[in-house]
Amino acid sequence: MSETVERHEFGAEVGRLLDLVVHALYSDREIFLRELVANAADAVDRRRFEALTSSIPAVPEGAAVRVVPDKEARTLTISDPGIGMAKAELATNLGTIARSGTRAFTQSLAEAAPGDRPSLIGQFGVGFYSAFMVADRVEVTSRKAGSDEAWTWASEGHGDYTLAPASREEPGTEIVLHVKEDASDFLEPFRLRSVIRKWADHITIPITVFRDGKDEPANEGTALWRKPKSEISEESYTEFYRHLGHVFDEPWSTLHWRAEGALEFTALLFIPGMKPFQAVENERESRVRLHVRRMFITDEAELLPAWLRFVHGVVDTEDLPLNVSREMLQATPALARIRRAVTNRVLSELKSRAREAEDYAKFWENFGTVLKEGLFEPGEHGKDIASLLRFRSSAVEGWTSLADYVSRMKEGQEAIYVLAGDAPEALAKSPQLEGFRARGVEVLLLSDQIDAFWPERLDRFEDKPIRSVTQGAVDLSKIAPPEGAQEEAADLSRLLPLLQDALKEDVSEVRATDRLVGSAVVLAASEGGPDLQMQRLLNRAGRGLGAGLPVLEVNPRHPLIRALAEKAAGDAGIGEAAGMLLDLARVQDGDSPRDPSGFARHVADAFAASLR
């Protein structure tokens, strides 16, 4: 065996490559440990497989990946009893990427079809070079299983690397990192264990961290989702759910299945039993964890759409290609199929659980607001989501669905009516409901901010249009009016033009309506414009320009309107009364009058006059 140390040049562009790897490909320095541990675990798996079909020695009993920090020497050692590498493999696996240069590597990556781009799981390459984020020198000593030779590859990550003969008693690989001064935390056993627990907790090969003179387990070593459901207790599911989500409740629903066929994957998902302390409405992305062969890759693969982001869990596959950094996934058809399958499975579970109204109400109160967001996304799920919606109602207690509403529609009723506002209690007392309630027409009460937006997007349910009662002129003439005598409607032919002229700066129209019973006036939105709740939200956000002026509807049977009609017929002025009517309508809808002080004085004067 030659004792000569061989020196090899990386190539002119190695500085650019290492800068790319160290500063651009990875967002967190701790990723290096994930990469090196993953390589070590895969080397053990490969040796186990090849030992079944060749004469190489089997993996020793109790084999483990060992992580050994040495504060005094400032080294971190990761060793494994895996397949190992021969001299040529060390040069190829640890030098190919660098030797080809940044430009050649990125060009070949761009030219390759997504399915042809090699996965970096279990391969030395760019992932290995993440070690230079925390080390100013890296030494790799390896002995190929079935060979007696061992070699050491070493580099400081600049312009070259060396290959030298070495000795190693058993097959496998040992990586020694000479840790930088600003990475001293990676010499702390506690820090190392926490990183391994985060990124590699469910690798089935044991991983240990050396502490106080002994190797301590650092990973659980059992991928729960890969076990048959029959072997998993509810307690085990709950424990894993709590560990995964850092929560203390019990899951509302547990979904565990294996998909087989052209694309195989295993999924273990949980729908929480309570809202998280951090409001899920504030998050915008799903955090379901993607694993490849039990190895945690990322929780940013968006395996579920944002409107299902309350779901926690793991999806594990073996044949999903990854891109160079393993933090950003290729947009492959395989990943798209996984996303579609997982989304459909969650929706199927929700539809099944929705049959139990009381149980489903718990879920809806926790996550209904988030689920409604799905109505805004283009795609095939709008109908599924619509069937899962639940609402408060002017006609029934508790929650009701759109399907139940349709089953209760009155003869002659052509639309599903909704009223959006800030609180269901206030909506239930709104004068907007008077004509509907008098005719026995149900109105759905929508009190989430998102409820001002989605009805227009959904538009219909079971061929019934969805209409806001505050938008446009609602025609209730086809629905039987309330029984009993009604006051004769006043002639408003003179009053309406006078009110229109007096309020021309504040309303777009003044018109009579038959949807009021006990109230004199009510506001409505013009046809084709946003409804009143949408206008309020736009005004609060400072974006009210262009929303249009509201419509003032008056009740021709109300004593106040009748009296004003008589006054108008006698050519008496009604300017002050017109302003009072508008302010009254605004107050009824929860808005402030245009002049709160003036409105208060008028009310006080009228109250005093009534007591004389």
TrEMBL record:
<keyword id="KW-0067">ATP-binding</keyword>
<comment type="similarity">
    <text>Belongs to the heat shock protein 90 family.</text>
</comment>
<dbReference type="InterPro" id="IPR037196">
    <property type="entry name" value="HSP90_C"/>
</dbReference>
<feature type="region of interest" description="C">
    <location>
        <begin position="537"/>
        <end position="612"/>
    </location>
</feature>
<keyword id="KW-0143">Chaperone</keyword>
<keyword id="KW-0346">Stress response</keyword>
<dbReference type="Pfam" id="PF13589">
    <property type="entry name" value="HATPase_c_3"/>
</dbReference>
<dbReference type="InterPro" id="IPR019805">
    <property type="entry name" value="Heat_shock_protein_90_CS"/>
</dbReference>
<dbReference type="Pfam" id="PF00183">
    <property type="entry name" value="HSP90"/>
</dbReference>
<keyword id="KW-0547">Nucleotide-binding</keyword>
<keyword id="KW-0963">Cytoplasm</keyword>
<feature type="domain" description="Histidine kinase/HSP90-like ATPase">
    <location>
        <begin position="28"/>
        <end position="183"/>
    </location>
</feature>
<comment type="subunit">
    <text>Homodimer.</text>
</comment>
<dbReference type="InterPro" id="IPR020575">
    <property type="entry name" value="Hsp90_N"/>
</dbReference>
<dbReference type="InterPro" id="IPR036890">
    <property type="entry name" value="HATPase_C_sf"/>
</dbReference>
<dbReference type="InterPro" id="IPR001404">
    <property type="entry name" value="Hsp90_fam"/>
</dbReference>
<feature type="region of interest" description="A; substrate-binding">
    <location>
        <begin position="1"/>
        <end position="326"/>
    </location>
</feature>
<protein>
    <recommendedName>
        <fullName>Chaperone protein HtpG</fullName>
    </recommendedName>
</protein>
<comment type="function">
    <text>Molecular chaperone. Has ATPase activity.</text>
</comment>
<dbReference type="InterPro" id="IPR003594">
    <property type="entry name" value="HATPase_dom"/>
</dbReference>
<dbReference type="InterPro" id="IPR020568">
    <property type="entry name" value="Ribosomal_Su5_D2-typ_SF"/>
</dbReference>
